[in-house]
Fibrinogen C-terminal domain-containing protein
Amino acid sequence: EVIQRQEQSIANLLEAMVEQGRHLNHQTRKIKLLEEKLAANTSAQETFEKMAQISKSALPTPTPYLTSGNSSTTMMSDFPSDCSELFDRGERANGIYAIKPNGSEPFMAFCDMSRGHGATVIQQRRDGSINFDEPWEKYENGFGDLQCKTLF
């Protein structure tokens, strides 16, 4: 009887160990996912820090894309349609650039060049300080701070 109880106790312990092993495997998978997210966030944080350094300088204007015509008026030409076009032209630094998508008026946009292509940043939450409950007109015209990269 004593041996039978010990065998049952051992069987219960083995079952508990198997369950703990499954639980540890599950936790290990969660940790790996979190590590991957942390690595991605660290890369994003480095980009944010670089953007903060860039934003300390004066807000750029479309001047690099302005050319003088034969007359005294200045004509706008050769605006890229988006940040990927800037990247294709050889631009590699994250920053604020003048773009002119699909025949619109030129405007300043933040370009993320850090992933091997140019990405036009349309929306980026930073610290929760921007209220997104805004009327459609604000979204049409844009709001937020271009220097802080929290714009829409």
Summary: The two ends are 75 Å apart (CA to CA). The beta strands are 66-68, 74-76, 95-99, 107-112, 119-120, 144-145, 150-151. The chain is about 45% helix and 15% strand.
